Amino acid sequence: MFRSNERKCFTIHCAVHTDIDRILITRQQIAARVRDMAQCIAADLESLAGDGRDIVLMPVLTGSILFVADLIRELPHKIKLHLVTVSSYPGKSTASQGASLQSELPDLTDQHVLIVDDILDSGRTIRMLRDAVAARGARSVRVCVLLRKKIPSALETPADYIGFDIDDEFVVGYGLDYDNFYRNLPDVATLRKEALR
Ligand code: IMP
Ligand code: MG
């Protein structure tokens, strides 16, 4: 049986919050923005759905998992999900090491594809995926990112839906990681220097 005071009965060692420097975007701000974005996306999907073709949401693992989980529950359309893995920031790196797809895409002939990623940084991931999706025959390709860094490479990469523009800092939380940690932080935050080792 669940007891409401159970959470207070133990001490948390290695809590995710101890390494946080600043919270940039709170969970409440994220929730409100995701709802707004979903409304825009739903309106566009409505016009796409008119041609009877399948709509495929393509979340980029692993960073987009929280974002896409919240986003899809706000979309009323019949959509397929196709998860893709792109390797770009292996391990403790905080700079893109190039983007490569970890498995082949399915045949996407005549389908409408919406790529969903956590953050637009160098733009390599989104540019590579957009090309790969188009090469698999998609009828249309759109891109949705929660965050975009205010740097030329990101700003010059076409994207249709953008949650927040942020300064050029390394951020974690709400799915974004450093060395695969901090994804479970509900807010978007920067890390203390000592944590970035
Ligand atoms: P891009 O290919 O350089 O645009 O990078 C996209 C991928 O790099 C994202 O999907 C993230 O997984 C990762 N990334 C870029 N910037 C950050 C960051 O500030 N924190 C965590 N991951 C990041
Ligand atoms: Mg990623």
Topology:
Blueprint lengths: L19 E6 L1 H23 L5 E7 L3 H8 L7 E2 L2 E4 L12 E2 L10 E9 L3 H12 L4 E10 L2 H4 L5 E6 L4 E2 L15 E4 L6
Parallel strand pairs: 2-3, 2-4, 2-6, 6-7, 7-8
Antiparallel strand pairs: 1-10, 4-5, 9-10
Bound molecules: inosinic acid and magnesium ion.
Question: How would you sum up this structure, described in words?
Answer:
The protein has 197 residues and is an alpha/beta fold. It contains four helices and ten strands, in the order E-H-E-H-E-E-E-E-H-E-H-E-E-E. The strands form two sheets. Strands 2, 3, 4, 5, 6, 7 and 8 form a seven-stranded mixed beta sheet that branches. A three-stranded antiparallel beta sheet has the order 1-10-9, with helices on one face. Helix 1 (27-49) crosses helix 2. The N and C termini lie far apart (41 Å). The mean pLDDT is 92. The site of magnesium ion has 4 residues, from strand 6.
How much is the radius of gyration in Å?
Answer: 18 Å
Principal-axis shape equals globular
The level of helicity is 10-25%
Report the major sheet.
Answer: 7 strands, mixed
Structural class: alpha/beta
In whole angstroms, the N-to-C terminal distance is 41 Å
Query: What ligands can be seen in this structure?
Result: inosinic acid, magnesium ion
**What is the tally of helical segments?**
4
Strand content: 25-35%
Reading the helices and strands in chain order gives EHEHEEEEHEHEEE
Mean pLDDT, rounded to whole units? Answer: 92
Instruction: Outline the low-pLDDT stretches.
Output: none
Number of strands: 10
